[in-house]
């Protein structure tokens, strides 16, 4: 089994998405996933996954931020080399958070909280165009979206042990994802 071969423990498996979270002996967690495409049928709703086993490029283009698009070649001539279609490696080096496409926050508004989470957790900066798209969405929030994903991201965001978390929500106006009133 994988656990015996690699001295690891499978923490969770999501059969419907064909993903697994694995904890290795050195306490490093790695998510393994089959390639897939996704489409959003409505803003804020979980996407519909399809075309499992598609090309890596198609899989990468569905992701939220460039820093989450890096992959490692596991076969072939370039085995163990970095695959970086979107400039994610440079964005990590430059501490930038950048979306892959202009509809990113429309498709999934919880990405706004995720961007703030990366900003606070890693001391990254939200890239200018990404920040403009974030603010455009917050100026026209679609309140018909389900709030479960927003709540989940907020729980993770506020579990970060750093000062100024609430201030960042106020300053960026991300509170608008829930209400026009920042004190509700």
Secondary-structure blueprint of this entry?
Blueprint: H1 2-6, E1 8-14, E2 19-24, E3 29-33, E4 37-39, E5 48-50, H2 56-60, E6 71-72, E7 82-83, H3 88-93, E8 96-97, H4 104-107, H5 110-122, E9 125-126, H6 128-139, H7 148-158, H8 165-172
Parallel strand pairs: 8-9
Antiparallel strand pairs: 1-2, 2-3, 4-5, 6-7
Account of the protein in words:
This protein starts with a helix and ends in a 12-residue tail after the last helix. Helix 5 packs parallel to helix 7. A three-stranded antiparallel β-sheet has the order 1-2-3. Strands 4-5 form a two-stranded antiparallel ribbon. It has a two-stranded antiparallel ribbon with strand order 6-7. The longest helix has 13 residues. It has 184 residues and is of the alpha+beta class. It contains eight helices and nine strands.
Provide a quick synopsis of the model.
The protein contains eight helices and nine strands.
Key terms:
17% strand, 184 residues, three-stranded antiparallel sheet, alpha+beta, 8 helices
